[in-house]
C-alpha cells in the first residue's frame, strides 16, 4: 500500500524524494545487497557499502576501477536494486527491511574526483577498515581506492518492519516520468576479464556456508522488469540447489533467472564473507503458506571474502592487490585519464 509519510530533507537542503523514515537506514547501513543484470538478463547480487548521494537525491555505491563489472552491467542496463536488510553495524535498533528499485548512472569521467570522494566517504562511514594502516601503505593501494561510482535514482521503494516480511510491504513510487541522468560514455576497448576463478563445483562447502552465513537473500526479476532482492527466512540444501522460504508479505515471486547471496561481516566492519549462487528460480508456493522457492543452481560465482583477524585479513587483501594492481594503468588508459593519486585528508 502507499504511505503518507512525508519527504525527508536532503543534505543539500532541498526535498529528497523518498520517505523520511527510511533515511537513517540508508545513511547508516554498513552493507546493502546491490543487484544488476547481465547481458542475458540474469541478476547478479553483491554486498556493497551504500551512501546517500552528495545532493541527497540518489543512493550511491562504488566499485573498483580495476574490477568494473558491476558498473559495466549497470551501464548496459540501468535497472538495478538495493536491498537494505543487514542491520549489523548500523547501530539502529530493529531497522526495517527496505528494497529500492531504480535507474543507475555510472560515473567514471573524473577518476581523481571519484577516488577522493571514495576515500572521504568510506573513511567517514567505516573508519575501522583502514585504522592502523600506515599511510605509505594506503597510498600504494590505488588498485583498490581508484573508484567508479554508481548513482541510483530510486523509482520504487518497498519496506517491511523486519527481515521476516510478516506483513505486506508499504511502498513509495517516484512520480511518473522520473528519469535518471545518462551514464558517462563507455570506455574504449574491452572490459577486463574476470580476475578471480569460481569454485569448480557449486556444492563445495555449500552446506557449511548455508548453515553459517546468516544473511541470505534471493534476487529474481520482478513483474516490473527490475531485479527484486528479498531476504529469505530459511534455506535448505537439495540435490540440484536450494529451497528457500520468504515471509508471507514478500513481493510476488515468479519463475526465472535467480541469484542467491549469503553474507556475513563483524559489527565493526573490518572484513566480510560472501557466497553467491546463480541459477533458475521455481516457485513452490501454496495458498496460505509462506513463499517457497526452489533454486536450481547452475554455478557459484567467485567471491571476494576478507576473513580472519586483522593480520590474516591484511595478507588476504594484499594478495588480491597483486592480481589487480597491473590493471590500474590499463583501466585509466581506457578512459583517457591519468592514474588517480591516493590522497588521504590531513589527520587520517
Describe this entry's structure for a reader:
- There is one protein chain.
- This protein has 348 residues and is an alpha+beta fold.
- The chain has a single domain, classed as Roll (Pnp Oxidase, Chain A), CATH 2.30.110.10.
- Helix content is 19%, strand content 33%.
- It has eight helices and 17 strands.
- It has helices at 23-28, 69-76, 111-125, 135-138, 142-145, 206-212, 310-324, 327-334, and strands at 7-9, 15-19, 32-37, 43-48, 51-52, 59-64, 79-84, 97-107, 147-160, 170-173, 215-221, 227-231, 234-238, 241-246, 256-264, 273-283, 291-300.
- Strands 3, 4, 5, 6, 7, 8, 9 and 10 form an eight-stranded antiparallel β-sheet that branches. Strands 12-11-15-16-17-14-13 form a seven-stranded antiparallel β-sheet, with helices on one face.
- Strand 15 (256-264) and strand 16 (273-283) form a beta hairpin.
- The protein is globular, with a radius of gyration of 20 Å.
- The chain starts with 6 loop residues before the first strand and ends in a 14-residue tail after the last helix.
- The model is unreliable at 1-15 (pLDDT under 50).
Biggest sheet, in brief?
8 strands, antiparallel
> What is the share of helical residues?
10-25%
The fraction of residues assigned to DSSP E strands is 25-35%
Low-confidence stretches: 1-15
Number of domains: 1
**Count of distinct strands:** 17
Order of helices and strands: EEHEEEEHEEHHHEEHEEEEEEEHH
**Radius of gyration (Å):** 20 Å
| Fourth CATH level, the homologous superfamily | Electron Transport, Fmn-binding Protein, Chain A
If you average the pLDDT, what whole number results? 89
Global shape? globular
Structural class: alpha+beta
Known CATH architecture: Roll
Per CATH, the class reads: Mainly Beta
The name CATH uses for the topology is Pnp Oxidase, Chain A
Number of helices: 8
Distance between the termini: 46 Å
Amino acid at each position: 500500500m502507499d504511505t503518507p509519510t512525508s519527504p525527508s530533507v536532503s543534505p543539500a537542503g532541498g526535498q529528497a524524494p523518498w520517505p523520511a523514515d527510511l533515511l537513517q537506514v540508508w545513511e547508516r547501513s554498513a552493507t546493502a545487497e546491490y543487484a544488476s543484470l547481465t547481458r542475458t538478463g540474469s541478476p547478479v547480487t553483491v554486498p556493497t557499502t551504500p551512501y546517500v548521494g552528495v545532493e541527497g537525491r540518489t543512493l550511491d555505491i562504488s566499485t573498483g576501477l580495476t574490477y568494473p563489472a558491476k558498473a559495466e552491467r549497470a551501464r548496459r542496463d540501468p535497472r538495478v536494486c538495493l536491498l537494505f536488510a543487514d542491520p549489523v553495524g548500523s547501530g539502529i535498533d530493529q531497522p526495517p527491511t527496505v528494497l529500492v528499485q531504480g535507474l543507475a548512472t555510472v560515473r567514471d569521467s573524473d577518476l581523481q574526483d571519484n577516488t577522493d570522494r571514495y576515500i572521504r566517504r568510506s573513511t567517514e562511514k567505516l573508519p575501522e577498515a583502514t585504522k592502523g594502516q600506515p599511510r605509505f601503505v594506503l597510498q600504494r593501494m590505488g588498485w583498490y581506492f581508484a573508484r567508479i561510482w554508481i548513482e541510483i535514482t530510486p523509482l520504487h521503494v518497498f519496506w517491511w518492519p523486519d527481515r521476516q516480511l510478516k506483513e505486506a510491504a508499504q511502498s513509495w513510487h517516484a512520480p511518473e516520468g522520473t528519469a535518471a541522468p545518462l551514464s558517462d560514455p563507455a570506455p574504449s576497448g574491452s572490459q577486463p576479464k574476470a580476475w578471480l576463478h569460481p569454485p569448480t563445483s557449486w556444492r563445495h562447502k555449500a552446506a557449511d556456508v548455508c548453515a553459517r552465513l546468516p544473511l541470505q537473500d534471493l534476487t529474481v526479476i520482478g513483474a516490473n522488469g527490475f531485479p527484486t532482492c528479498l531476504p529469505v527466512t530459511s534455506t535448505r540444501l537439495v540435490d540440484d540447489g536450494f529451497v528457500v522460504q520468504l515471509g508471507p508479505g514478500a513481493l510476488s515471486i515468479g519463475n526465472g533467472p535467480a541469484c542467491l547471496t549469503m553474507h556475513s561481516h563483524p559489527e565493526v566492519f573490518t572484513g566480510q564473507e560472501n557466497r553467491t549462487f546463480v541459477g533458475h528460480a521455481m516457485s513452490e508456493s501454496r495458498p496460505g503458506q509462506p513463499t517457497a522457492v526452489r533454486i536450481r543452481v547452475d554455478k557459484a560465482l567467485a567471491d571476494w571474502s576478507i576473513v580472519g583477524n586483522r593480520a590474516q585479513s591484511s595478507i588476504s587483501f594484499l594478495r588480491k592487490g597483486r592480481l589487480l594492481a597491473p590493471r590500474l594503468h590499463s583501466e585509466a588508459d581506457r578512459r583517457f585519464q591519468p592514474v588517480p593519486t591516493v590522497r588521504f585528508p590531513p589527520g587520517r
